[in-house]
Amino acid sequence: MKIAQITPLYEAVPPKLYGGTERVVAWLSDALVDAGHDVTLFASADAQTRATLVPVRDQAIRLDPALLKSDLAAHMAMLHEVRRRMDEFDVLHFHVDMIHFPFFEDCAERTLTTLHGRLDLKDLPGVYRRWHQFPLASISLDQRKPLRTANWIGCVHHGLPRDLCRFNDAPDGDYLAFLGRISPEKRVDRAIAIARRVGMPLKIAAKIDPGDKAYFEREIEPLLQGGDVEYIGEINDRQKPAFLGNARALLFPIDWPEPFGIVMIEAMACGTPVVAWHRGSVPEVLEDGVTGRIVDNEDDAVKAVHDVLAYDRRAVRAVFERRFTDEAMASRYLDLYAQLVRAREPDLGLRLA
């Protein structure tokens, strides 16, 4: 099958540091190539991919040192190139929210749009009613709740390469981990409180966006005093296996409807159990009592940390292998691509092999 992957241009593919959507697109593109499909990736020129790369910008927007730049202009230029070449592909798989809808509304049946972000935002319901013809994929069932009547054709949980985060059955660290972004909804303050009540050190590997800098300085930085909490900043994919694999548990104390939470499956790949709040997609990702514990308050989280320290890390890894590899993700997307092609052109069935 000939498949176009259209990614946001904010981060490299995959991101050099923090970043979710572009990372998933990188994993998916490579897995589809490995499965024998003809994949073309529309992305910035710094992408690292086994797909055929169409560079539509010289570098990812976040890495561009230019002070004045237009993300809208960059994405419009990319969409123009996709539109120009769309007849080359069986499916156009968009990962850019809804920005492409006005440009492709006359051929929506050729597209699949995966929505990667939160959907409980003002103005979104009107967009998905106006362009209801676009087939949509969610990254969790919980993500759909604000837009239950949108044109959902499937749900595909994220997956990552099975050898990206190495399994570690004998962690040599005696610490808890927090990995992600420092912002009010991620609740690193909860993680700090839990670790201190448990009596274990906490290591924090996290990005601070410019918009969250004041929050960090006001609310979080004062909590870092003392030797039991270490803030190490952003880390890349090469550093994650050691950081997560040597942790006794990952704390995921979110306070928002997280659509997926890649860090949970990265930890599971290492065999590291997760203690997470009952929000968003968490109940879909974690198997309570096997890969971690799902909690509703700080007291329960403290008890849960003590529980998961005794978990079988091989069982945690086994769930990852069964549910959250890039091969599993690619297989589920291929089912959706085939569904779209069959509905549009039944005579092209032989091209799907």
TrEMBL record:
A Pfam family matched in the record: Glycos_transf_1
Q: Which residues form the Glycosyltransferase subfamily 4-like N-terminal domain?
A: 18-132
Sorted alphabetically, which InterPro entries does this protein's record hold?
Glyco_trans_1, Glyco_trans_4-like_N
Q: Which residues form the Glycosyl transferase family domain?
A: 172-310
Q: Which domain of life is it from?
A: Bacteria
The name on file for this protein is Glycosyltransferase family 4 protein
